Amino acid sequence: MTYELYYWPGIQGRGEFVRLVLEEAAADYIDVARQPRGEATLLAFLERQDLAYPPFAPPFLKDGNVIIGQTAAILLYLGDRHGLAPKDEATRLWVHQIQLTIADLVGEAHDTHHPLGADLYYEEQKPEALRRTKHFRKNRIHKYLDWFERILARNPGGDANLIGNTVSYADLSLFQVVEGLLYAFPKSTKTALAEFPRVAALRRTIAQRPRIRAYLDSDRRIKFNKQGIFRHYPELDC
User: Fold this and answer.
1) Measured distance CA(212)–CA(84) in Å, rounded
2) 83 Rama class: left (phi>0) / alpha (psi -120 to 50) / beta
3) How many Å apart are CA 155 and CA 42, to the nearest integer?
4) DSSP per-residue string spanning 216-236
5) In CATH, what number is assigned to the domain containing residue 145?
6) Is 175 exposed, middle or buried (CB count within 10 Å of its CB: 0-12, 13-18, 19+)?
7) 204 is a domain residue
């Protein structure tokens, strides 16, 4: 059965973490909002009154009669079905914990340019964004990357992956979050990555996986832009 992914068109956002897993799994899927009148279809789905478990917001995934919202929950679901998650319960939950921490990092990255709220334009909260971003660049990027580096170093299966000796959905997500940080804060992130060679190596390795490479080179991969979670404002990376 073909998966239906519901996420906003024109941005990578949180939906990109799901797309990477679907692409790596060679799964059949439709990116609904990128179809003709797709955004209207997405909005109409959110207004449905007949759903026992309605999603709060995109991204959400429809697999037949099953509807899953929240990026980490979607990836847990897909990982189990496509060999991108461990089988044993303890390790499976550990990968899920890593994914939730990545979600925390994504949220903090978003709040650098919108510290007062998403209902205001960046230009309306620029002084606060400058202050918030300085702390994020100087402290938070390093703290998160250090944690991922330590996980890679301690992995009994080798430091090429976060867990075991095969790729998981968390590896794909770490690749994506590093790509986003390099776009938004190229100077700060390149400096930080020099201290964390295992994280840098994982990013390079994931980018060269055949299905991921084909996806990155295709028009299915939306380019980073100033409408998404990761946004590049030169004044925030000085």
Assistant:
1) 14
2) left
3) 40
4) HTSTTSPPP-TTSSS---GGG
5) 1.20.1050.10
6) buried
7) yes
pTM for the structure as a whole: 0.96
Is 17 a member of any domain? yes
Mean predicted lDDT score pLDDT of the chain: 97
CB 47 within 8 A of CB 16: no
Q: Looking at the structure, do residues 103 and 31 belong to the same domain, yes or no?
A: no
Q: What is the pLDDT of residue 1?
A: 83
Q: For the segment 64-92, what is each residue's pLDDT rounded down to a tens digit?
A: 999 999 999 999 999 999 999 999 999 99
* Residue 193 resides in a domain: yes
Is residue 237 one of the residues assigned to a domain?
A: no
CATH number at residue 21: 3.40.30.10
Q: Nearest Cα to 97, choosing from 19, 189, 169, 195? A: 169
Q: Is 49 exposed, middle or buried (0-12, 13-18, 19+ CB in 10 A)?
A: exposed
Task: Give CA–CA dist 111/40, Å, rounded.
Answer: 27
Residues 190, 97 share a domain: yes
Tokens representing 211?
């299905």
Q: How far is CA 130 from CA 118, 123, 133, 191, in A?
A: 16, 11, 5, 19
DSSP 8-class letter at 58: S
Give the span between the Cα atoms of 71 and 75, in whole angstroms: 6
- Residue 35 · residue 29 · CB < 8 Å: no
Strand 29-31, strand 66-69: pairing: unpaired
Residue-number span of the structural domain to which 21 is assigned: 3-81
Considering the domain architecture, whether residues 205 and 93 belong to the same structural domain is answered as yes
**pLDDT of 238 above 90:** no
Give SS3 for 133.
helix
